[in-house]
Amino acid sequence: MRRSQPLVYLTLLVAIGLSVFPLYWLFVVATRTNDVVGDWPPPLLPGGELGGNLSRLFAAEDANFLTGMLNSAIASITVTVAVVFFSSLAGFAFAKLRFRGRNALLLVILATMMIPVQMGIIPLYMIMVEFGWQNRLQAVIVPFLVSAFGVFLMRQYAERAVPDELIEAARVDGCSTFRIYWTVVLPALRPGAAVLGLFTFMGTWNEFLWPLAVLEADNPTVQFSLSQLSTTYYTDYTLMFAGALVAIVPLFFVFVAFGRQIIGGIMEGAVKA
User: Fold this and answer.
1) Contacts of range 183-188, beta carbons closer than 8 Å, 24 or more positions apart
2) Which of 151-155, 180-184, 204-208, 263-267 has the lowest mean pLDDT?
3) How many CA atoms lie within 13 A of 248 on its CB side?
4) pLDDT at 78
5) Residue 150: how many CB atoms within 10 A of its CB?
């Protein structure tokens, strides 16, 4: 084991370097001008143009980048909270409650995961037209408030993390079903809910195809705004890299916050065990 440690550390350092270098290169180009994009060898030190590039980014009228950031934040937070709540509630019901048709309903939910998202864009867009939600933020939020993957993940996690004896003890104490979920089940599902929340937030924040179909350039999400920075005849790479740099900052903080919850939940479960 001791002899293998240097090789393990070397492998981890190489993996970290390969993972971090694209982000570092993104930052370097965002702090320079377009002249360095095609240079070889590429510059490895940041420049002094970050402030100017950010000013041009938020001043770009075609991109509406600030509006895109706000819309993505509202949509991502709302969808994440809704998915975690409904998925954990449904997962608890499928895992611990006994009712007629439980297995059939679970199979129906799993079957929806087999349908590619692209196949549902046209009928979903027609529904948004009937509701009059074109170019409205609720068109990006409402169709994704429930996730079949989230229900399946929480069902599997609740099956293992919540003992039946704990639920029976809560019923003996006079708790209702929803109170059992809120006070007993939900705290036990915290690590799984943190993982689901992280994936949901990142997926909603990075979603591009559906906002492109249902929104317009004056009311975009952040990924839609980034696409507007590139024109047919000219691409301002420093402007695009500056926008991508700003766009990943919320993801970084969310990852750090949810990562602490995941580690804390795992350690808490290990101590209880």
Assistant:
1) 185/88, 185/92, 185/96, 185/158, 186/88, 188/158, 188/161, 188/162
2) 263-267
3) 11
4) 96
5) 25
- What mean pLDDT do residues 65-80 have? 94
d(CA 170, CA 26): 52
Taken in order 159, 162, 163, 168, the sign of the CA dihedral is: negative
Does 41 sit behind a cis peptide bond, omega within 30 degrees of 0 on the bond before it?
yes
Cα–Cα distance measured from residue 5 to residue 50, given in angstroms and rounded to the nearest whole number: 40
Q: Which amino acid is at 102?
A: R
Q: Which helix (H) or strand (E) holds 242?
A: helix 237-272
> What phi, psi does 210 have (nearest 5°)?
-70, -45
Query: Do residues 134 and 214 make contact, with C-beta atoms less than 8 angstroms apart?
Result: yes
Report the half-sphere exposure of 84 (CA within 13 A, side-chain side).
24
Reply yes or no on whether the pLDDT at 266 is more than 60.
no
- Tokens found for residue 128: 């948004």
